Amino acid sequence: MNDIFDKIYKDKGPLGKWADQAEGYFVFPKLEGNISNRMKFNGKEVITWSVNDYLGLANHPEVRKVDAEAAKKWGSAYPMGARMMSGHTELHEKLQNELASFVNKEAAYLLNFGYQGILSTIDALVGKNDVIVYDVDAHACIIDGVRLHLGKRFTYKHNDVKSIELNLERATKITEQTGGGILLISEGVFGMRGEQGKLKEIVALKEKYNFRLLVDDAHGFGTLGETGAGAGEEQGVQDQIDVYFATFAKSMASTGAFIAGDKEIMDYMKYNMRSQMFAKSLQMTLVEGALKRLEMIRTMPELKAKLWENVNALQNGLRENGFDIGTTSSCVTPVYLHGSIPEAMALVKDLRENFGIFCSIVVYPVIPKGLILLRLIPTASHTLEDINETLNAFSAIREKLENGTYKKLAKMAMEAAE
Ligand SMILES: Cc1ncc(COP(=O)(O)O)c(C=O)c1O
Questions:
Q1: Comparing C-alpha atoms, which of 251, 229, 248, 246 is closest to residue 238?
Q2: Structural domain containing residue 372
Q3: Which of 141, 143, 330 to mutate to test the pocket of ligand 1 (most atoms within 8 A of CB)?
Q4: In 77-156, at which residue ranges do the beta strands (DSSP E only) sit?
Q5: If you measure from the C-alpha of residue 1 to the centroid of ligand 1, how many angstroms do you get, rounded to a whole number?
Q6: pTM (2 decimals)?
Q7: Which residues, if any, are the signal sequence (predicted)?
């Protein structure tokens, strides 16, 4: 008989195997100081491009004040228990009502974390006779939600309307036999490449196919649409999203999440989402903090305006300097370069140590071999000076990548490690 730990001793997994070289620097880095445009990494100031604090609320004095006062008033325990048992309060209800009205839905339900929340949302919406159709580039939380499904599921090519239709056709044939329905899942904004989900085109398919649409709008909430209600509002199809999901982990700069939709559906969800029924309620400091953040999003349009001023300055600047930023249609700003993984590591080290730029790096197997993706998240707290400094740094590192500097550095690093 084998020990289940044997495989762990042998193989640390696709990411874990890099831990010796990467931990503390490329993964699990410690960014220190207040969350803002400039933080500290390894004791040095860096321009921070890797924090999803889109509206700059994380360290806003009014937010910090409300968070501190709420923590003093409630502590971190209140309320104890799951919503259904002993964890329900007036303020939870108030926040739900305000969120529902903000995203133009009849009702909303709070989730204690986005990841578990959406997983259970998917689980609660489908039964074994139903079919799920979802984007192949979906976030891990959607994939894990789909994993719980006992019926058929089909992925469609990323944001490809033809492929969506083809899979809706397949799903329709199956549901005609099983008597089930179809759940289509898209993201409002795909967080890696920044493209908005093709919600308008998906919604148009409702004319021809019978399905319900669940949208994970983690990156769209607060950043897109005239009022900040997200990708559905931006594309004019918010009313056609059957279940709308957003997390507090990005524009709201907090923890928690919610779903919104018709009241009857939300009433069903609150009795059927296992990760919420059997887990502690969102704590009061987070609820009060979220009420404050939502009020600021509603009443301070200048936050979103500043965010977009920065997004446009950064994305236009990168394009004008000849960088490939793909097909982003959101704040998420990817920069695609060509090089090997060791070159990418040398490049990021140079960016952090010598240019004071901290951004996320994505390489194979998340993206195709030979590509390096540097992912920048502009926020309302960045300045034009941050952007100009970054554009100059990017031009410098591109030159070094092209003239082989990082290849040499990577080779030297490898020889030193042997
Ligand atoms: C697209 C998307 N969905 C869901 C989540 C999970 O949300 P949370 O961090 O609240 O668990 C994230 C990450 O925050 C995300 O990027």
A1: 229
A2: 13-48+301-417
A3: 141
A4: 107-111, 131-135, 153-156
A5: 39
A6: 0.96
A7: none
